[in-house]
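Worked example 3 (structure in, sequence out).
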């Protein structure tokens, strides 16, 4: 009996030592998990979660201790005020890095909170150029920015689409308006004429007034800077009004949900752009899609591969620095250079992904087809 007690005591001590040598490291993930674009927000979170689970399965050791990564998922509701509140909550919780936010309008104000706390932040989806031009040393993104994307969109509109007149609508968010502004610059530089510039909101569902006004201008192309939650209904209303102009939008509408919301109103005259390569052409795209579906029983929407690469970049930097402390692994994060799902993950001096690619898509055979 005494021997049994002693053995159990020794076993207990052994377990305690093992537990003491395991270090829990919290990473944050922030995106709209409720509301009209919650499908995109959950996609972001799933990408980061898959990266964390992969790291835990491999058994990462840092500073002589086995690390267990935990992902703290937060909902910023695509609202700037909520975004800063959530950012402060994550900082107070002691996260060592943050993947997010999704929208430029929430990411930019939240980045100030992380910068003040010295917590690295990598957005997989916020494309407004301002994000990485604030002078913050710990702010990055794994997706091309709107200067790159808007330039490609404008050239596509006046080039392959041969548009001479263009109407532009934006949702007045940092993302939508920013992308629309860059697209307008590129259209004008290419010799195109802007015959209307209208705006809506990221909560609107009725666009008849502005679309009726645009119909009178008879544009060759209508460009929308915004998300799929507005883009889908907008296409329906364009069809109802008998507008035959080609419809072009950015990455916020380049999703399966956009097609679902537009229904039979979407056709071959609908185009969208996407930062990066098509999923099937990404170096790790096919394998990522397979594992994503198996884990979450859902299709990839848009940004989850970029969220996966963002979380992976942080974890790899911690391993290289042999520390989970932001001040120590940040220099290694800046020097990131590894083959990710989306391609080579490496950042320029501003924190933007290097050589960010842009791909144009056309609606064909029920899906977005890379051109």
């Amino acid at each position: 009996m005494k021997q049994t007690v002693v053995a159990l005591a020794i076993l207990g001590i052994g377990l305690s030592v093992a537990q003491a040598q395991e270090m829990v490291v919290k990473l944050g993930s922030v995106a709209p998990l409720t509301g009209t674009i919650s499908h995109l927000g959950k996609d972001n979170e799933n990408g980061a979660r898959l990266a964390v689970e992969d790291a835990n399965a491999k058994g990462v050791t840092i500073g002589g201790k086995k690390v267990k990564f935990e992902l703290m998922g937060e909902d910023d509701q695509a609202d700037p005020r909520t975004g800063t509140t959530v950012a402060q909550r994550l900082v107070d919780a002691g996260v060592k890095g943050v993947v997010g936010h999704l929208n430029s309008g929430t990411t930019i104000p939240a980045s100030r909170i992380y910068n003040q706390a010295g917590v690295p932040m990598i957005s997989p989806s916020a494309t407004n150029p301002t994000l990485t031009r604030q002078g913050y040393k710990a702010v990055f993104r794994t997706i091309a920015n709107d200067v790159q994307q808007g330039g490609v969109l404008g050239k596509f509109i006046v080039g392959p689409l041969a548009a001479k007149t263009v109407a532009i609508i934006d949702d007045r968010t940092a993302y939508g308006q920013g992308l629309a502004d860059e697209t307008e610059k590129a259209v004008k530089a290419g010799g195109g004429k802007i015959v209307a510039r209208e705006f809506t909101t990221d909560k609107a569902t009725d666009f008849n007034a502005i679309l009726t006004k645009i119909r009178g201008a008879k544009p060759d192309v209508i460009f929308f800077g915004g998300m799929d939650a507005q883009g889908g209904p907008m296409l329906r209303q364009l069809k109802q009004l008998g507008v035959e102009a080609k419809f072009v939008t950015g990455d916020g509408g380049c999703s399966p949900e956009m097609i679902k919301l537009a229904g039979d109103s979407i056709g071959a005259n609908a185009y969208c752009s996407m930062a990066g390569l098509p999923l099937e052409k990404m170096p790790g795209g096919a394998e990522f899609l397979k594992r994503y579906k198996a884990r979450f029983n859902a299709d990839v929407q848009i940004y989850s591969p970029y969220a996966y690469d963002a979380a992976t970049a942080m974890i790899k930097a911690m391993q290289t620095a042999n520390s989970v402390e932001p001040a120590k692994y940040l220099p290694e994060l800046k020097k990131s250079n590894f083959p990710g799902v989306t391609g080579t993950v490496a950042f320029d001096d501003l924190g933007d992904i290097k050589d960010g690619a842009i791909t144009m898509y056309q609606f064909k055979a029920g899906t977005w087809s890379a051109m």
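Notes: The longest helix spans residues 38-58. Residues 1-11, 13-20 have pLDDT under 50 and may be disordered.
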